[in-house]
Structure formats: C-alpha cells, structure tokens
Amino acid sequence: MKITLIAGARPNFMKIAPIIRAIENAQQSGKVIDYRLVHTGQHYDDKLSKIFFEQLQIPQPHVNLGAGSGTQAEQTARIMVEFERDLIANPTDLVVVVGDVTSTMACTIVAKKLNTKVAHVEGGIRSFDMSMPEEINRIVTDSLADYFFTTSTVANQNLRKSGVGEEQIFFVGNTMIDTLLTQLPKTKKPEKWSEWAVKSKEYVVLTLHRPSNVDDADKFANWMKVIDAVGLPVIFPVHPRTQKNFSKLVNKPRNIIACDPLSYLEFIYLIKESKAVITDSGGVQEETTVLGIPCLTLRNNTERPETVTTGTNEMIGDNFVALSEALKNLHAGKWKQGAIPELWDGRTAERIVSALLQLF
Questions:
Q1: How far, in Å, CA of 276 to CA of 270, rounded?
Q2: Superfamily for 185-331?
C-alpha cells in the first residue's frame, strides 16, 4: 500500500516521526507498505521546522510545497493548490493527516475531492471553542476523514456523537508521546543554561502563543505581571507572534527570562527539569502530564481533558487571581500527583501501522 504523510507545522513533526519509524520497521519485516512525506511548508523558519527533522531523525520530505505565511485563507488556499498538483502527480491509497493545523484541514479537503481516502491521527479531540482556528480545522477534517486514530476514550465518544461508525475508530494512543519517550534520553541542556543560572526544579517554564493571550497588549501585560511575581526564575521561549508585545512591555519583568524558540530536545530538557510549566499549548499539556510536571494552562477549555482528569494539568482560564492562587498551591507542594493516560505508552505508531495493514 502507498501512504502520503502530511506535515506542515512544528507539532506535526513530532507526530509523524514515530509513524515513519513504524512504517520502516514494517518494511524490514516484509510488509508491503511505502510512504511519501509531504511538507506543506506552513512553518518555514528553520527553528520551527528544519531542526525538528534533524533532531527527530525524520528523512527529508519528498516535497516541500512552500506554503509559507499569510492569513488563514491565503495559507489554506496555497496549501490546497500545491497539494492538489502533488497528489494528482503522485496518487496514493491513503492520505494521513495529523493534528489540527491548517495543513491538516487543507490537505484533507484536497484528498477527498480527488476521491482519496483520509486517515486522521488525533481525530475526535474537541475544545468546543469555535474562536480557535484549530477547532474549525478539527471539525472539518473529522467530517471528511474515513479513519480515525484516537488518543483517548473522550475522543472516541466525540466521534460517535457526530455519527462516525465504530469500524472507523481506532483507539491507539498518542504519537506525540511516542516521540517524547523515544527522545527523552537524548535531551540536552539549552545553550544558555549556564547564562540563565537556574537550578533543576527551581524555575518555571512559560509558553504563550494563542491570540487570546498575546494579541491584546493589556491582557498580555497583566499575565506578565502575575507570572513575574512567581518568586522563581521563569524561562520564556518567545514564540514569533508573541515577541512584538513582549518587546513593548513598559514594565519589564525582573524574573522572566526571554529567549528564542528552542529545539525540541532542548525544550523537553527544560520542561522535565522545571518545577512547573505555565502554557496555553495543547502539546505541552500532554508532555507535562507524562513527565509528571505541574501544568497551569491559561485557557478556558482544553481539547485534551485527560491531562486534567488523569494528568498534572489544571485549567486557569483568563483569571489572574486564579493563577496567583495556583502558584501559591504549587509553592506549598499541594499540586496533584497525576497519572499517565491509557495507551500513552510509546507504542501508538506501531498500532497505527498494524491497523493500516489490516485495512488495506
């Protein structure tokens, strides 16, 4: 069978890496399966793209569609135009999309209009927040896909409620955790570790990039004020979309140490050695849960509820007072222990490839 794998943005790379390894292992055991890797170019900065292929040992993509930046509509249109050309020239049995970025939705639409089956890795997750572009991407993708590889029983329930048949749903676990567990022994100190002068379990990691948190200058400044009062050094790898408002802060934070985006191996090292993480990222909620690190999520909802019900994550919402109280509980050692969700065991990609071989 022939598979076309789609990768477009940073989270995609971590999710496809174990699938590629599982396909190559199946090939070595005599299974008839091959893949073509399509990089849409949605993220084109080397720090957000190229380095992840290198560190995660993903082979160079067969093609880079070069979508680049732009508005949601511009980016979607470019991906669709370029992927349509590529898929017509390189027909396949199945297009596999991962996650919930623009590339996921755009390539799904193209594949279905060309009568090609689609499998969605991480299907069925929902935040039920239609102000998030990712939620729209999830809903459109899941309304069209033929097969769904899911991370949780909640995702399974969401799909069933939307009319998806049992024969289309495969509860396999989380490929992002496959990558985390594989790469954990290879993590390394960031280059500026000594310059930061921080000690293990005596600092906090901060990541913010969602428009609701960083585009409103006043709200962003208030978050910085509360977080700066944590009483510990706060390492803040600044996302490109966040840099503008951070640089405009009138009252410069004393405890927040800003830095450029880190490589995957450096970032995971930073998380695993931290006391806690403050974030609005879905992927970081998953990583902290598996690593047993307290996670304070500055959102009103999450598409990964298992990180709250089972893991170490707590939803803070938009409440500055709630963040202060949560930080007090953290200092007092009152954070919940947490556990690892079902099937987040590092073997998800094996289960995906096994299911694909049975389906085709």
A1: 10
A2: Glycogen Phosphorylase B; (3.40.50.2000)
* The pLDDT of residue 7: 92
Asked about 331 being catalytic, the answer comes back as: no
Please check the confidence at residue 48 and state whether its pLDDT lies above 80.
no
Strand pairing class (94-98; 2-7): parallel
Tokens of 15: 């999710």
* Delimiting residues of CATH 3.40.50.2000 domain(s) in the chain: 2-173+344-359, 185-331
Q: For 216-239, how does the pLDDT look when each residue is reduced to its tens digit (9 = 90+)? A: 999 999 999 999 999 899 999 998
d(CA 69, CA 42): 7
pTM of the model: 0.94
**CATH (one of 3.40.50.2000, 3.20.20.210, 3.40.50.620, 3.30.70.3270) for 2-173+344-359:** 3.40.50.2000
Residues 336-358 have a mean pLDDT of 97
Tens-digit pLDDT profile for residues 82-108: 999 999 999 999 999 999 999 999 999
* Distance, CA of 313 to CA of 302 (rounded, Å): 10
The span from the CA of 108 to the CA of 93, in Å, is 14
Q: Can you list the alpha helix ranges (DSSP code H) found in the chain?
A: 10-28, 50-55, 72-89, 102-113, 133-144, 153-161, 175-183, 193-196, 211-214, 217-228, 240-247, 264-272, 282-291, 306-309, 320-331, 348-359
Residue in 39, 209, 239, 331 annotated catalytic: 209
Phi/psi for 258 (5° steps) reads -85, 145
